[in-house]
């Protein structure tokens, strides 16, 4: 980090008072167009846990908190701070962490708690790939190769089980992709021929993806979920039992709340972007490891983001001819 930037980072937490600056300048700016919905997540940096709250509609960081550890008490302290800011929260989107459900119900009793559907789908797809790997391992292994170099004309041809194992490994992504092309569908059908378990896995993934279709309501999605839980494939193939258990978790039902609220964000992507921005700072500005440096750098970034957006809005309102070029550069 350069010397000038170092001074600017530390200025947010020394005698000038970074918290005062955020209170007087930043908080009124984010409160004036707050949508009523939040995305909350935590990111870890060594011994510190950094909480972020982002408005998904405006993509603005509402607040942050640096804690020595990620516990329920620290999570409660962060949400109490959000309430003291004057936020009227209608819904909160988080990942599947157990830190949030109880705290959200206590601090914002009327708010909906949406669990990120991306994290739910990721967990289910991971179980699908594990079941696929178990099927590959269960295929007959090739006969043991004789020692020495094979003679001419004695090269062993791969067995059908070896060919199937190789095809499954090379095309394993076809079982978890949401949308497949016509050629991918044809390739998948050729691999699954005479393999009912492989077909059942892909059909199950399609049914799970259909649960999160915005065109249906949550009540309809819950009926679909109950139908999936009663499928006979779970009784026919014990390998799918972990997927069946995951489909019975309450977090899956919480991931469907966004279907009844068009303004409720179904994923925590907004706050994940803030986490990635911080990870980028970690790589490029290594000296922010100390707590006061972390706090100063985050405050500086939030204030700079406010200045950048206000400058863009001013240029757009003035009809600046270089507006399009400016936004592309930003």
Folded structure, characterized:
Helix 2 (18-31) runs parallel beside helix 14. The chain has 330 residues and is α/β, with parallel strands linked by helices. It is elongated and about 80 Å long. It has two domains: 3-115 and 263-329, 2-Layer Sandwich (Nucleotidyltransferase, domain 5), CATH 3.30.420.10; 117-140 and 158-254. It has a five-stranded mixed sheet with strand order 3-2-1-4-5, sandwiched between helices. The two termini are 21 Å apart. It contains 15 helices and five strands. Residues 1-17 have low confidence and may be disordered.
Provide the β-strand percentage band.
5-15%
Corresponding CATH architecture of the largest domain: 2-Layer Sandwich
H and E order: HHEEEHEHEHHHHHHHHHHH
Radius of gyration, CA atoms, in whole angstroms: 26 Å
Write down the domain tally: 2
Helix content: 40-55%
Q: How much is the average pLDDT?
A: 86
Q: Going by CATH, what is the homologous superfamily of the largest domain?
A: Ribonuclease H-like superfamily/Ribonuclease H
* Biggest beta-sheet profile: 5 strands, mixed
Uncertain runs with pLDDT below 50, 5 residues or more?
1-17
CATH fold call of the largest domain = Nucleotidyltransferase, domain 5
Count up the helices.
15
Please report the first level of CATH classification, the CATH class of the largest domain: Alpha Beta
| Overall SS class | alpha/beta
Q: Widest sheet: strand order?
A: 3-2-1-4-5
Shape: elongated
Number of strands: 5
Distance between the termini: 21 Å
């Amino acid at each position: 980090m350069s010397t000038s930037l170092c001074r600017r980072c530390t200025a947010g937490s020394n005698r000038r008072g970074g918290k005062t600056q955020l209170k007087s300048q930043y908080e009124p700016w984010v409160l004036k167009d707050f949508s009523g919905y939040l995305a909350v997540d935590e990111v870890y940096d060594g011994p510190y846990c950094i909480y972020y709250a982002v408005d998904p509609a405006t993509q603005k960081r509402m607040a942050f908190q640096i804690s020595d550890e990620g516990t329920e008490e620290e999570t409660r302290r962060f949400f109490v701070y959000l309430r003291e800011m004057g936020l009227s929260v209608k819904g909160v989107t988080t990942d599947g962490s157990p830190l949030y459900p109880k705290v959200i119900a206590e601090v914002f009793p009327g708010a909906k708690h949406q669990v990120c559907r991306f994290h739910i789908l990721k967990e289910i797809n991971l179980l699908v790939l594990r079941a696929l790997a178990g099927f590959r391992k269960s295929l007959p292994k090739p006969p043991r190769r004789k020692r020495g170099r094979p003679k001419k004309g004695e090269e062993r041809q791969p067995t059908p089980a070896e060919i199937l194992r190789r095809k499954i490994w090379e095309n394993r992504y076809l079982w978890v992709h949401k949308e497949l092309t016509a050629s991918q569908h044809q390739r998948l059908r050729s691999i699954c021929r005479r393999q009912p378990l492989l077909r059942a896995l892909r059909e199950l993934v399609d049914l799970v993806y259909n649960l999160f279709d915005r065109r249906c309501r949550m009540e309809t999605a819950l009926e679909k979920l109950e139908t999936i839980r009663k499928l006979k494939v779970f009784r026919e193939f014990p390998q799918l039992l972990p997927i069946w258990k995951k489909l019975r978790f309450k977090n899956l039902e919480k991931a469907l709340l966004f279907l009844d609220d068009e303004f409720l964000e179904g994923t925590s992507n907004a706050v994940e972007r803030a986490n990635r921005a911080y990870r980028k700072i970690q790589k490029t500005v290594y000296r922010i490891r100390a707590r006061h440096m972390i706090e100063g750098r985050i405050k500086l970034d939030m204030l700079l983001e406010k200045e950048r957006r206000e400058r863009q809005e001013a240029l757009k309102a003035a009809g600046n001819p270089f507006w399009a070029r400016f936004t592309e550069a930003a």
